[in-house]
Backbone:
């Protein structure tokens, strides 16, 4: 039986067809899919720097999906549990470690206590007392001046002037989240 000759009718050279095979492909949802599943990025110092940059630029939703996917790896699950969960002090319920404070609006660690010296205090803003001479006019920080010139005082917690209420009133207080669970 004579050997058949294969004739290429595409008009593409071998290098052109290889480039075509390496083009990006997208699945039905519009996500980029890899045409070469065997290609692996080497894990080294350079790729680690690129990974940090990729994480910095990643959207919140995608980052959540990646973390949820990684929880299936036992060592990652253990590390994330230690970073993201804690036990409630009195009832020993497992709760989210990081919450938003209802008093100051800042993220805080449920595993640590807020010290009482973190109370919001009103302090003199000396730049507001132009040409004020304490020898002549008396002390800047007085109850009369706080009432008459509240704009010349600043809260230590939020840097707002004395016309606003101080935002920190004691210990951090968890705000109940209205977010849906995944």
Residues:
């Amino acid at each position: 039986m004579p050997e058949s000759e294969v004739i290429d009718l595409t008009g593409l050279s071998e290098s052109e067809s290889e480039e075509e095979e390496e083009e990006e492909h997208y699945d039905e949802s519009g996500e980029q899919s890899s045409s070469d599943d065997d290609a692996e990025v080497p894990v080294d110092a350079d790729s680690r720097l690129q990974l940090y940059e990729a994480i910095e630029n990643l959207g919140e939703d995608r980052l959540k999906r990646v973390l949820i996917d990684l929880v299936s790896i036992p060592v990652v699950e253990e590390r994330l549990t230690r970073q993201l969960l804690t036990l409630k002090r009195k009832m020993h319920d497992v709760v989210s470690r990081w919450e938003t404070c209802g008093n100051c609006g800042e993220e805080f660690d449920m595993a640590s206590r807020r010290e009482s010296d973190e109370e919001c205090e009103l302090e003199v803003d000396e730049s507001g007392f132009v040409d004020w001479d304490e020898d002549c006019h008396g002390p800047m920080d007085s109850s009369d001046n706080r009432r008459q010139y509240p704009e010349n005082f600043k809260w230590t917690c939020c840097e707002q002037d004395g016309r606003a209420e101080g935002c920190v009133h004691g210990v951090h207080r968890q705000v109940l989240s209205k977010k849906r669970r995944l």
In short: The chain has a mean pLDDT of 76. The helical segments are 14-21, 45-57, 60-70, 74-84, 134-137, 143-148. The CA atoms of residues 46 and 57 lie 17 Å apart.
